[in-house]
Amino acid sequence: MDNFAAHNTLDHLFRHEYSRLVAMLTNRYGAALLDMVEDAVQEALLKAGKMWSYQPMPDKPGAWLYRVANNKMIDFLRREKKSVDFDKGPASEGMSTEEYEIEEEVIQDEMLKMIFACCHPSMKPSEQLMLSLKLLCGLSVKEIARALLKSEEATKKAIQRAKQKFKNEVGELVMPRPDDITERMNAVLQVVYLLFNEGYKATEGEQLMKQELCDEAIRLAFLMLNEPQCNTNELNALISMMLFKAARFPARQDAQGNLLTLEYQDRNLYRKDYVKWAWHFLKRSSDFENTTIYQLEAAIASYYTTAPTYADTNWKQILRLYDALVLHKPMPVVKMSRVVVLSKLEGPAKALAAMQEIEEDMKANQSFQALKAELYAEMEDWNPARYHLSVAIRQADNRTERRFLEDKLDTWREKE
């Protein structure tokens, strides 16, 4: 395996294991020791990253990571002169990796407890989201700030406050009562939604997308299907939306790793099995009453993914769905997505006029600037097109996206 493939394998494994380790160790040692748990998990992952870069990965990496992280917890507690007499799991440093194996059903149960603990009613909705994205998903402060459209400094402080409240007020991790599960579902679904979006369009780094984050979001959503109270139309529709979008992953980049927009993607590469299951869950969501935001987003994703060709995209129906979505979810980023569709039907001038409404909220957003550039280019107004594309390039932290925009700017320099 080459270094790039090995790195991707480790990224996928660490994203997958991070939340499991945090959930299991927090459940074992208590919410009050959350900082220690995070440190232990980070050290275990760091040790694994160093060791597995030059020697084979163990047969059971999850059990190996749990053993190392648990031993780190014991070390921390001994240094703090705190009791290590816990009876919920293995605590002996001499135990083998096999003895640290935990049944998947137990892990899933502890993950569910952690999901709902992060959305504890004692915390504000924004704190629930940030805590979940940090503890359950292992996102960086920068990734969380981008997902919530906040500054990094404000996000960092808010996460610390949320963690302190979690340590003081959550206590033991337990599954809420059925009525409490229903109350917390909106927050949990938004966490999964934001996690998937961050993976679908990575904030920074070389990778255009972090598929392991999308996989983790889908896995968490499927995990919740095991709990009857969670099996709602919103959850089924969210799963549908994620699967429709994930079906396009194999076609989003060329062989050299360059970004391919929807117009240039090879639709033969789309995952037909994902599309099949996406339709299944969208149909299941319609068995419930009322149309939800996630159903509208799933329906939009279905039109993008299942059109035989780009030219066959049903822009009129997608615009109707966006009109409904804006009524339910009048956020600037949703209005910006609607502008893209509006431009296909009514032209770039009408789309640029519609962008004025969200200018103040979105001017620091790279996608907003890139869209303005593209619309001016369609009008062959090259000076503002180049200006806004240059702004987008400066704002781009993802190197694959920046390279895509720079290549486009090079072709526009000769335009008059």
Could you provide a short overview of the structure?
It contains 19 helices and no strands.
Question: Your description of this structure?
Answer:
The protein is mainly α and 416 residues long. It has 19 helices and no strands. It has a domain at 363-416. The chain is 67% helix and 0% strand. Helix 1 (3-29) packs antiparallel against helix 2, helix 1 packs across helix 4 (104-118) and helix 2 (34-51) crosses helix 3. The protein is globular and about 70 Å long. The chain starts with a helix and ends with a helix.
List the helices and strands and how they pair.
Elements lengths: L2 H27 L4 H18 L9 H19 L24 H15 L6 H11 L5 H8 L3 H18 L8 H23 L10 H14 L8 H14 L25 H14 L7 H14 L8 H14 L3 H15 L1 H8 L3 H4 L3 H13 L3 H14 L3 H14 L4
Helix pairs in contact: 1-2, 1-3, 1-4, 1-9, 2-3, 5-7, 5-8, 6-7, 6-8, 8-9, 8-10, 9-10, 10-11, 10-12, 11-12, 12-13, 13-14, 14-15, 15-17, 17-18, 18-19
Number of helices: 19
Tell me the span between the first and last alpha carbons: 48 Å
Q: Which sequence of SSEs, written as H and E, runs from N to C?
A: HHHHHHHHHHHHHHHHHHH
The chain-level structural class is mainly alpha
Q: What share of the residues does DSSP label as strand, in percent?
A: under 5%
Largest sheet: none
Oligomeric organization of the protein chains: single chain
Radius of gyration equals 23 Å
User: Helicity, in percent?
Assistant: 55-70%
Mean pLDDT: 85
Q: Unreliable segments (pLDDT under 50, ≥5 consecutive)? A: 1-8, 87-97
